[in-house]
Write a structure and sequence with these properties.
This protein has 248 residues and is of the alpha+beta class. 45% of the residues lie in helices and 9% in strands. The protein contains 11 helices and 4 strands; from the N terminus they run H-H-E-H-H-H-E-E-H-E-H-H-H-H-H.
Length: 248
Amino acid sequence: MPKQLPGFIGFPEKQRAVIVPDSFFTDLLPQIDDLAELKLTVYAFWLLNEQSGDLRYLSGEDLRADERLLRSLNLESDLRTPLAALEDALQRAVARNTFLRMDVETGDEDDPERADWYFLNTAKGRRMVALIRQGKLGELQKVIPEEARLHVERPNVFVLYEQNIGLMTELIAEQLRDMERTYPPEWIQEAFEIAVIANKRALRYIQAVLRRWETEGKKENNGRAGRDSASEQSKDYTPDEFSDLIIR
């Protein structure tokens, strides 16, 4: 039997406001059909508002130890344990693209310690994930050791487009399918990340990046990606219709 919580006595006169995007109410809320996922999503807005700095994320370990959150998931009508409800809510939120999940491994490769991080899928959250993947976020070193291994599950090209560029038309979908047939998936992912960091959210920009790599060769970074900023990478231009777009 869940523990009876005291009744709510009302909001105090002075308190700090929590920022919630309009699209949560207009687009996301009508899609959420699981109470645990809804509670986790709303709670996430508060947790992230309480953080400071550029690197704002939710730690799976912290969420699983959060007594307030677990109490809210301890429902008499739910046969799952609070932890089971939380795990399901996390999976649902990732599948719905509310959260972007990043897995972090530290320690010995034969017996690594694993952690799961969750970023809100906003423009800033996507930018943070892209910067982390390319090794460009200095603030990250304050949180994890240098030898840590980071992994972000690679979404398909359609998810990449909708998350980073915009709504998809049939013509765009066909161009994306052609990209998948032509280029390695890691090239496509990196081209999208470069576009996000450079704030050049256009499919033709991404296509231009891929064509340049195809014709001139792609310089591999051997795990040291991102020492240079996207603006530094954009110094070399070609005198054609994409001269305002192409970067190395």
